[in-house]
Design a protein that fits this description.
By secondary structure, the protein is mainly alpha-helical. It has three domains: 1-189, MFS general substrate transporter like domains (Growth Hormone, Chain: A); 201-256; 262-481, Growth Hormone, Chain: A (Up-down Bundle). The protein has helices spanning 3-7, 13-32, 37-44, 48-51, 53-65, 69-75, 78-98, 102-130, 133-164, 169-188, 202-225, 230-252, 266-296, 301-329, 331-349, 358-373, 376-385, 392-432, 439-472, 484-499.
């Protein structure tokens, strides 16, 4: 990637530490805002369909910029990319913290997103370049610990801040930390990169933005607007058509913006498929459980965050352990055990009642997240291990892009299942009544129907997880493949020497 990192025999722990703290702050900021949305709606006088742009817009900017990260990593040094990314994130945080109107707050969030979008692919690429294949699981496990700790802390910390301070304190709290990390990076990151003649294909950037942006917007809007909305099917159609165009164009370019040849490596293609399926299923817990505990059970946001805290902590603390186990045993056995745990726990979540205990929910969620920690990082690392070095930026960019897309698809699918099944159950319950329902009975019917709809969505999520479980049996331990460019270059070098 760059001379300093590529040639060093010892991993650049200083660079990795700075990048990890920067990525941690960016990830923490993502999860902090969700609980604050009702407060923002009340103060800035905006509705749910408007305020959701704080999360949808953030995701769209990520979807547009992450595919370009492969080009940026190949062209620029770690120092330059990190300082620009952290600078944009810090400016965005300051703007959002000072916002007294929604457009300014949204602009701040977009700036934050433009910085954080590059952070994850950059860090993953440095990790891949810095550690040999046999030690990469342990390294990526520590990486997982840092990144999983952010969503673990986020909801609980956010709930406490919102209860005691104004929602702007969420941004004021992050600002000095982000500024300190930027200053540390400025003085401590010293890596150099030879001048590159790479040029960004602007038409590819436009196609990528329309393609990934359209798909993400379409699926993320389906839950609110419904599948029959022109905003939904129109955006998805435009997204799919331009994505196909984008892929065809990349195949013709000598230096593609995002190299789809990574899918020629079977373990990478398989790992991408498994992580996409698991991502879709994962959103059942992140999305449906808060709806169940807050809407149907009346549990406060703070207590809801505490309920999910042990699960997130279990996933974070298990990451270094699964990393070491991956180095020793490979990804297949970990994925099979982890997915078995996920299937059982997700199915048990499809049996929720109004009497299900708080402790039972907490333990079940923690075990489910424990299973997930055995799947995500090991499977992803195994796939990346098969790629030649020059494909690392494209592999990490592809993985992060597909995670965004699969997350949006999973959310839309499970919200649709929950909504349609809720309506069906409500109709069935109403028909079974022998008397005209009172207002109190109508509320009870709605609650029972929503509970059944949530259970049905969890059941579908467990079926989705079974698909990933079947795919896991095809995993083989990866070693770095030969670079086809280097292979074809060898005979040319030899003939040149003979000619001389």
């Amino acid at each position: 990637m760059d001379n300093t990192i590529g040639k060093s025999s010892r991993p650049p722990y200083g660079i990795i530490a700075i990048l990890m703290v920067g990525a941690f702050i960016a990830f923490l900021n993502n999860t902090l805002l969700n609980i604050a949305l009702p407060s923002i709606m009340g103060e800035l006088k905006v509705g749910p369909s408007t305020v959701q742009w704080l999360t949808t817009g953030f995701m769209l900017v990520n979807g547009v910029l992450i595919p370009t990260s492969a080009f940026l990593i190949e062209k620029y040094s770690v120092r330059r990319l990190f300082l620009v990314a952290m600078g944009l994130f810090t400016i965005g945080t300051v703007v959002a913290g000072m916002a007294h109107a929604f457009p300014l707050l949204l602009a701040g969030r977009m700036l934050q997103a433009s910085g954080s979008a590059v952070m994850m692919p950059l860090l993953m690429n440095v990790m891949l370049v810095s550690f040999p294949v046999e030690k990469r699981g342990t390294a990526m496990g520590m990486f997982g610990l840092i990144l999983m700790a952010a969503p673990a802390i986020g909801p609980t910390l956010s709930g406490w801040i919102i209860e005691h301070y104004d929602w702007r304190m969420l941004f004021h709290f992050i600002t000095p930390i982000a500024a300190a990390i930027f200053i540390l990076g400025f003085f401590l990151l010293k890596d150099k990169k030879e001048k590159s003649n790479l040029h960004l294909d602007l038409f590819s950037l436009i196609l990528s933005s329309l393609g990934f942006g359209g798909v993400l917007y379409g699926f993320s809007s389906a839950g609110n607007k419904g599948w029959d909305s022109i905003h939904v099917y129109g955006a998805i159609t435009v997204g799919v058509v331009t994505l196909v165009w984008f892929i065809l164009r990349q195949a013709k370019l000598e230096r593609p913006m995002l190299n789809f040849h990574v899918f020629k490596y079977p373990m990478f293609a398989l790992s991408s498929s498994i992580t996409m399926v698991v991502n879709m299923a994962m959103f059942s817990g992140m999305l449906l459980l808060p709806i169940y505990v807050q809407t149907l059970r009346g549990i406060s946001p703070m207590d809801a965050g505490l309920l999910m805290l042990p699960g997130a902590l279990a996933m974070a603390l298990m990451s270094p352990v699964t990393g070491r186990l991956f180095d020793k045993f490979g990804g297949k056995i970990l994925a099979i055990i982890g997915l078995s745990i996920m299937i059982v726990t997700t199915f048990l979540f499809s049996k929720l009642t109004f009497e299900t205990g708080y402790t039972h929910l907490m333990i079940l969620h923690a075990i489910r997240m424990l299973g997930m920690s055995m799947v995500m990082m090991p499977v992803s690392t195994n796939g990346l291990n098969q790629l030649p070095k020059r494909f690392y930026p494209h592999g990490t960019a592809m993985n992060n892009t597909l995670n965004q897309v699969s997350g949006a698809i999973g959310t839309a699918l499970l919200v649709t299942v929950m909504s349609t099944r809720t309506e069906t159950h409500a109709t069935e319950i109403a028909k079974s009544l022998t008397t005209q329902p009172t207002e109190a009975m109508k509320l009870q019917i709605e609650a029972q129907a929503m509970l059944e709809g949530i259970n049905d969505a969890f059941f579908i999520a467990s079926i989705i997880t079974i698909l990933a479980f079947i795919l896991a049996f095809f995993i083989k331990r990866s070693t770095e493949s030969e670079d086809p460019q280097q292979e074809t270059a060898k005979p040319q070098v030899k003939s040149k020497l003979v000619g001389n």
